[in-house]
Amino acid sequence: KQKLLEVRDLQTHFFTEDGVIPSVDGVTFDVHKGETLAIVGESGCGKSVTSLSIMRLVSEPGKIMRGQILFEGKDLTKLSEREMRSIRGNEIAMIFQEPLTSLNPVFTVGDQVAEVLRLHQKLSRKQAKERTIQLLRKVGIPRSDKVYDAYPHELSGGMRQRVMIAMALSCNPKLLIADEPTTALDVTIQAQILRLMRELTEEFHTSIMLITHDLGVVAEMADRVIVMYAGQVVEKTDVFTLFKSPKHPYTQGLLNSTPKIHELKDELESIEGTVPPPSNMPKGCRFHPRCPHATAQCVKHEPALKEVDLGHEVRCWLYEDAEEAVIS
Ligand code: SF4
Ligand code: MG
């Protein structure tokens, strides 16, 4: 499989009054061409900061400290802000949980989509408007010539998210980063939006990096999955293996606490304990205060991410040889 995006040992810190917070701490993963990679974890695990780092949108007091973000072989961390602007929205597009905050309230939704098209594709005003109406129709918005003239607050949440998808796909990006794209929507609308994303990205051969806390969405959408905990990747595998034989105790906890895949709303809250505050990270394995299998070794030494099966990586002492463990 061809790699579109390669994130290597990414580290993003936040410099706060309470000290340095390593929100993303040595994260490595790939997104292949045409696939959907899901990043799963509780809020505060570093999944959103990972995507903002890729877009180079981490704001003060945050800073990318280390690592490479190779997009088609080009290291995004090395690009100028100007070069980065031509990639953002054009080659890599992003949609967020609440479209109301990413849409400008004083312009009509049609003009906003048309503006993006004009900016990136050098279309005339008239061409951009025609293309926008086509796009709005394509994302399933009825009477799209009327909706063109609507303001964001006049549309439902589901319709706004369709507008955001139209805007994101308007430049035919190679990578779509979707951060909790359906979390704010009710279940029926959520299913429609996910279906739409799948259809469109298949048609346009777009790769998706899907950030979610919802394992139902993962089951529905993902080819491969990485599970993040406290700024690190703890498990990485294909979606079938994740649900059939999860190896990391945290992943097992996520799945066990969910009797049915599509009734999952608050599943991540049901593992005992909470995510450690990043300013006070536990020593050893970061999951040990919540782990039912923790040993003295887990408390003292941090496990590394290791491949335990072909394409299946886990960060846990349970899957390492005792001998190896003693040395580290
Ligand atoms: Fe649990 Fe130890 Fe594995 Fe961490 S390393 S997940 S504490 S068994
Ligand atoms: Mg988030």
TrEMBL record:
Membrane topology: Peripheral membrane protein
InterPro entries: AAA+_ATPase, ABC_Ni/Peptide_Import, ABC_transporter-like_ATP-bd, ABC_transporter-like_CS, Oligopep_ABC_C, P-loop_NTPase
Domain ABC transporter residues, every copy: 5-255
Family, per entry: Belongs to the ABC transporter superfamily.
Gene3D superfamilies in the record: P-loop containing nucleotide triphosphate hydrolases
Subcellular location: Cell membrane
Keyword field: ATP-binding, Cell membrane, Membrane, Nucleotide-binding, Transport
Annotated source species: Caldalkalibacillus thermarum (strain TA2.A1)
SUPFAM superfamilies: P-loop containing nucleoside triphosphate hydrolases
UniProt keyword Lipoprotein, yes or no: no
MF term (GO), any: ATP hydrolysis activity
SMART domains reported in the protein's UniProt record: AAA
Superkingdom classification of source: Bacteria
Protein name (Swiss-Prot/TrEMBL): ABC transporter ATP-binding protein
Gene Ontology, cellular component aspect: plasma membrane
Biological-process GO terms, alphabetical: peptide transport
